[in-house]
Write a structure and sequence with these properties.
Blueprint lengths: L2 E7 L4 E7 L4 E7 L8 H16 L7 E8 L7 H9 L6 E4 L1 H10 L4 E6 L3 E7 L2 E6 L11 H17 L6 H10 L4 H8 L4 H5 L1 H8 L4 H25 L5 E7 L1 H5 L1 H12 L4 E5 L8 H9 L5
Parallel strand pairs: 1-4, 4-5, 6-9, 9-10
Antiparallel strand pairs: 1-2, 2-3, 6-7, 7-8
């Protein structure tokens, strides 16, 4: 049976899925994280393990294409190195960044915009086989509207209340409880010890309070508007004003947080294009199938 393999390799897991030529899933395996920028050797080992697992008991010659989506693939010569490392498997190979793979999965190879907002954020567009981006510059210089952005605003809110001698909001009290602290100065010390992921995890605490705390609700609304602004910039860059544009949403913040989504939709409603929202129906790994449908088995 002829088949293709899609691999979505991220910061927490590597998911490899085998599809037949009609796009039906045949096998799914999961190994550890695949972000080679975090740990090159372990990330590579997890990717290779996933590939080996799905190729076991299959004819390599029947593999029409393997598409791997990996964060950071465009930086530091990583793509060239990885092509050499994976040549061992002797299958047609395409390397994309993880956002491009998700774009193919959600928009099924068609032109449009993908908004990714989880721990970080980025907006990716494709038109006439050309890629465009806005954002994705990391937590120091970007990640607007992301989980990290929401967590950072929550901490900043607590500091602002301290500076202005305002009554603590429910959100600030939640932060004290969450970290088992009692003062703002303790919170500052703790915040500077947190990783990016730990700050992003505060977005869940903000979301849980939003229905009864206007301060928390305002932060989520601001995040949604920021994501809308990023999309508007991308539409301008792609010259898609006054057109119908497909918009896909990917990531926990923009998929699951209703206040973020409401603010995002409201912002785009007043922009100079008509959005057509596309629902996520499958793993990003299915981008391999849609890539094959559109491009065939071209290696790159």
């Amino acid at each position: 049976m002829k088949y293709m393999i899609g691999i979505d390799s991220g910061g927490t897991k590597t998911e490899a899925i085998v599809y037949d030529l009609s796009g039906k899933e045949q096998q799914r395996v999961v190994t550890g994280f695949g972000n080679m920028l975090v740990d090159y050797d372990q990330g590579l080992a997890n990717i290779k393990a996933a590939i080996q697992m799905v190729l076991t008991d299959r004819q390599v010659a029947d593999c029409q294409l393997l598409v791997l989506g990996l964060a950071g693939i465009d930086s530091g010569g990583l793509k060239e190195v990885l092509m050499k490392e994976l040549a061992y498997f002797q299958v047609p190979l395409v390397l994309l960044n993880d956002g491009q793979l998700a774009h193919y999965a959600l928009l099924q190879g068609e032109a449009g915009v993908l908004v990714i907002a989880g721990t970080g954020s980025i907006c990716l567009g494709m038109k006439q086989n050309e890629w465009y981006r806005v954002g994705g510059w990391g937590h120091l210089f970007g990640d607007e509207g992301s989980g990290y952005y929401i967590g950072k605003l929550a901490i900043q809110q607590a500091l602002a209340e301290y500076d202005t001698q305002s009554k603590y909001s429910l959100l600030t009290e939640r932060l004290f409880s969450y970290f088992n602290l009692t003062t703002t100065l303790e919170l500052v010390k703790k915040a500077y010890q947190l990783t990016k992921d730990q700050i992003a995890a505060l977005a869940k605490e903000v979301a849980e309070l939003a229905h009864k705390d206007p301060t928390a609700a305002a932060i989520l609304t601001k995040a949604g508007m920021k994501l809308g602004e990023e999309v508007e910039k991308l539409i301008t860059k792609m010259k898609l004003e006054n057109q119908l544009v497909k918009i896909g949403l990917n990531g926990s913040v923009v998929e699951n947080n209703e206040l973020v989504r409401q603010a995002f939709f409201a912002y785009l409603k007043n922009c100079s294009f008509e959005p057509e929202y596309v629902q996520k129906e499958s793993s990003s790994a299915k981008g391999a199938y849609y890539f094959y449908q559109k491009n065939g088995a071209e290696e790159k």
